[in-house]
């Protein structure tokens, strides 16, 4: 494998070809906040919290470090004022929908103002960790996304879950950065603890209402 | 709302499962042609019945949630029954001031369905759309891909009777 030379936060380092900027930074002991990244799952690039600044051909550009591959001669800055500002705004937007769990923790760390944007509590930030864990790691289909844009949401297929969830390690629940997932299950499997009120507009998709899906999606 | 289910689609004389297998085979059972395959299935039935999706999951080895994720992402896919003939009435600004609401009411009275609905015999679906780009003809009604300018009730009756 080829060795690449890069500069991260002013430090000259070597990186392996094929690694993401996030992986390279972590190896150098530089911490970058993430919400939708997990080492067992393929890169997704949904939350943009891991944004960093790169300098290429004399121009600077903001990229998501969890999906951007290491490149020869790249200059990366992980905590410039511009990057800090972007992270604060992302967190403030996320706080409007889910002021809990990991989001709450990071928001406190970055001094994000929870009152900046009007609240629209769904408790899900659509990071896809639960869905991807279920589909990629477990090879199951108990969870999925439906809809697009503001209509996008996680749904739960009870008739598939009946088979898969009981024999599963149920790690999808602990992966959820906003702690809403247990409530989603709570609707169908009472054994799951409900920690927060279920504001999240969960639709349970069973055999009978599968084809009525678009009645509820405009 | 039409309560039509897959059984009535089958009664239309189509060997449904055979058709889906045939469509999948045509694309070599390749997952990368999924959208093309979904479009062809929808062309066949005018919508995506649950049974078709379950069948597709087995044929292509794509998890059901993935199929529904895609089918709910694109506006062209319908997960509720849609009729063989799609009637669209333009409610764009120009058509609106040229009395599109009156035209819609005529259609509603004839077909006894509201916009967004499908007749029980799966013959017609009614939709309203934005500007169709031919405002001078307004109010405009579209039957499948044929344009009609302000048809009267008796003209509509004749046009609908020609739709199979
Ligand atoms: S517990 Fe159920 S939903 Fe969660 S990963 Fe396992 S199979 Fe999927
Ligand atoms: S339920 Fe939790 S893990 Fe799943 S997409 Fe929403 S925030 Fe992410
Ligand atoms: S961690 Fe990179 S976009 Fe979410
Ligand atoms: S508004 Fe109806 S065609 Fe333009």
**Proper CATH architecture of the largest domain in chain B:** 3-Layer(aba) Sandwich
CATH C-level name of the largest domain in chain B: Alpha Beta
Helix count of chain B?
8
The N- and C-terminal alpha carbons of chain A lie at a distance of 49 Å
Mean pLDDT of chain B: 86
Low-confidence runs of at least 5 consecutive residues of chain A: 188-204, 206-218
Total beta strands of chain A: 7
Query: Would you tell me the structural class of the helices and strands of chain B?
Result: alpha+beta
How would you explain this protein's 3D organization?
The complex is a heterodimer of chains A (218) and B (164). In chain A, helix 2 (81-97) runs antiparallel to helix 3 (101-110). Chain A has helices at 21-27, 81-97, 101-110, 129-137, 158-164, 171-175, 181-186, 213-216; strands spanning 3-8, 11-16, 51-56, 59-64, 75-77, 143-146, 153-156. Chain A is an alpha+beta fold and 218 residues long. In chain A, the strands form two sheets. In chain A, strands 2-1-5-3-4 form a five-stranded mixed beta sheet, sandwiched between helices. In chain A, strands 6-7 form a two-stranded antiparallel sheet. The model of chain A is unreliable at 188-204 and 206-218 (pLDDT under 50). The longest helix of chain A has 17 residues, at 81-97. Chain B is 46% helix and 12% strand. In chain B, a hairpin with a 2-residue loop joins strand 3 and strand 4 (146-149). The model of chain B is unreliable at 1-13 (pLDDT under 50). Chain B has two domains: 6-73; 85-162, Glutaredoxin, CATH 3.40.30. The complex binds iron/sulfur cluster (2 copies) and FE2/S2 (inorganic) cluster (2 copies). One iron/sulfur cluster is lined by residues 133-134, 138, 140, 142-143, 161, 164-165, 168, 170, 172 of chain A. Residues 90, 92-95, 131-135, 138, 140 of chain B line the site of one FE2/S2 (inorganic) cluster.
């Amino acid at each position: 494998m080829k060795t690449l030379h890069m500069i991260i936060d002013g430090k000259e380092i070597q990186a392996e070809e094929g690694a993401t900027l996030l992986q390279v930074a972590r190896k150098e002991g530089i911490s970058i906040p993430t919400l939708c990244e997990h080492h067992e799952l393929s890169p997704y690039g949904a939350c943009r919290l891991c944004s960093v600044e790169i300098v290429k051909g004399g121009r600077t550009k903001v990229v998501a470090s969890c999906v951007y591959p290491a490149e020869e001669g790249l200059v990366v800055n992980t905590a410039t004022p511009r990057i800090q500002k972007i992270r604060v705004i992302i967190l403030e937007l996320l706080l409007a929908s889910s002021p809990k769990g990991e989001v709450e923790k990071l928001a406190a760390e970055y001094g994000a103002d929870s009152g900046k944007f009007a609240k629209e509590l769904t408790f899900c930030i659509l990071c896809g960790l639960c869905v991807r864990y279920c589909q990629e790691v477990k090879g199951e289909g108990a969870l999925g996304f439906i809809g697009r844009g503001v209509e996008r949401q996680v749904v739960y297929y009870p008739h598939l879950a009946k088979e898969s969830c009981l024999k599963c390690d149920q790690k999808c629940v602990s992966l959820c950065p906003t702690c809403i997932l247990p409530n989603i299950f709570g609707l169908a499997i009472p054994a799951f603890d409900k920690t927060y009120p279920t504001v999240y507009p969960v639709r349970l998709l069973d055999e009978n209402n599968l084809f009525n899906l678009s009645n509820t999606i405009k | 709302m039409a309560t039509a289910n897959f059984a009535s689609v089958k009664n239309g004389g189509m060997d449904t499962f055979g058709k889906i297998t045939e469509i999948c085979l045509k694309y070599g059972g390749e997952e990368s042609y999924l959208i093309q395959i979904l479009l062809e299935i929808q062309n066949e039935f005018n919508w995506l019945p649950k049974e078709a999706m379950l069948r597709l999951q087995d044929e292509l080895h794509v998890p059901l949630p993935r199929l529904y994720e895609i089918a709910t992402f694109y506006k062209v896919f319908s997960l509720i029954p849609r009729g063989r003939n799609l009637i669209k009435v333009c409610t764009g600004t120009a058509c609106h001031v040229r009395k599109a609401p009156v035209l819609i009411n005529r259609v509603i009275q004839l077909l006894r369905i509201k916009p967004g609905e499908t007749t029980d015999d799966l013959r017609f679906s009614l939709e309203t759309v934005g500007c169709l780009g031919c405002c001078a003809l307004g109010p405009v009604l579209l039957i499948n891909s044929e344009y009609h300018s302000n048809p009267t009730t008796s003209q509509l009756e004749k046009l609908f009777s020609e739709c199979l």
